[in-house]
Amino acid sequence: MRAIRVVLAFAVLFPFLVGCDKQAEKKADDDKASTSQAQLTLSREDVEHLGIETAPVKTAQYTPNVRGYGSVVSFDVLAQSVSDVTIAQAAALQSQAAFAHARVLAAEQLITRDALAIAERQATTDAAAVLLAERKQVVSFGRNAPWRSKADSDAILSQLASGHMVLIRVSFPSSVPSQNVPEKLTVERVQNGPGGGAWTSSKVWQAPADPNLPGWGFFALVANTDLAEGERVLVSMPVGQPISGELIPANAVLLSGDKAWCYTQSKPGGYVRHPLDISRPINDGYFVTDGIKAGQAVVVQGGALLLAHELNPSSGDKD
Known about the structure:
It is built from 6 helices and 17 strands. By secondary structure, the chain is of the alpha+beta class. Strand 12 and strand 13 form a beta hairpin. Helix 3 packs antiparallel against helix 4.
């Protein structure tokens, strides 16, 4: 009877033990796949067959930043605002001149007092219209918009009208540590990764508060882009001092599951797989500080085939 109980207990525990073994094997496999020193050695023929190419890793600098978002402002909106101010100012100048002339005529009793009062009322009305138009522009584009200065407005508005420059409204989250106006912002397309196009602003100023967009807002002028009106963009603002590291080219990065990797060449035909932190994109790649040093040869062509060959050596066999 005791032997029967032992057999029954083993029968009950066997599936559980097998499951534990499989979980342990899976964890071991995952740990092996996560190692930063996954070695792979190929013959010269295999290297040629897989089309492996390398490039030296270069040094780079990275400035810590916060990410925000923005959109390209329609030039028609700006043009209408500027036009409203210009028309109001022209009308005010004319009515003020007419009022000054009416006062001279009234002093010589050449016009009635009613005519003088009409001229004064028109001058007052036109001055109020200028104030209203200017306040509307401040509410829309901020107090420090560069086109508010006559010396700068013609050149800036001409570039905006021709499409050689765009105006971008930017918003950063309320967690940004400071609302100080940065000297420059970096603008990228939403759908593009590294190498997809990035531009540096030529002018930045604070935008009026928007209750629909919590956080800090800025306007930025960006020249020589092909961004379209209304296009959404990602924007980076520096918030710290530059740090030194290495640049991993975008075409060297391999994505597998939720991890990123690259291969470096340790010797002719010898390759080492490294995990990568791709949370800091810059220029045409990613900034890293650990695991890879400047001057190392990183695989920029055939890396995906290397990974496939490592996981399944038969995948690299010749036909």
